[in-house]
Please model this.
Amino acid sequence: MHEMRKDYSTLTRAAFVDDLPDGWTATEVKHDFTITLFVFSWALLPVGFMVLMAFSSRYAQHRITLATVALLMLMLAFWTGAGQRRSSLNEPRMQLAVASLATSAGCLGLLWGLDMPTWWWVAYGLIFGTVATMYTGLNHLASCDAPSLRIPWSTKTPLPMGAMRGWSIQNGRWTNGRMGVLRLKDGGVCTMYGVMDGETAYLCLEPLSPAATSPPFTEWGLDFTAFREHSSPITSEE
Model:
């Protein structure tokens, strides 16, 4: 089992950085999964006790309680990881982890509500599966180190909708936050968002994928030249 990556500084430079579209610049994606790894490792402690209790009849009355504690700690670990990246919940591996967490929580709720402690093994099986799906999702998320692209953008300039293909747009004008999402061919996602750097507003594109396998710009569904023509060299928040 490989350790989840914890710091971007040890990662390699994306191959496409030297071939950026005119007017666009690349910036490093900063994330730190140290706290996620720490919480996840502690969550494995009650999961380990669950394994022991699955093969022992001692303290059987505490099986559901232990499973609940383990699930809550797994949820906390998941939240600390997923919350670090925009549109992380649109990534298929992360969606599978969310479905697994929700199913486990629903099962525990039914066991509590219907007073069915003899069905504890169903919840245990779901939680064991959740550990695997969570690790897969978070490990992939930690490996998504492809740099984001950005370009200066006026807060009053609307997006050139004709220069965008396949994008799901939430805001047609610049906003300090997520503006749109594109699902890439490999299943990953690319997020468009606005950000302020000092007094300058930027329009940013952030692909959620490893730098080594980041798709070519032709698959980003954008006419980068059209965006450059609409960009503003110096903008400020108004």
In short: The beta strands are 25-27, 148-152, 168-169, 178-183, 189-197, 200-207. The CA atoms of residues 112 and 225 lie 58 Å apart.
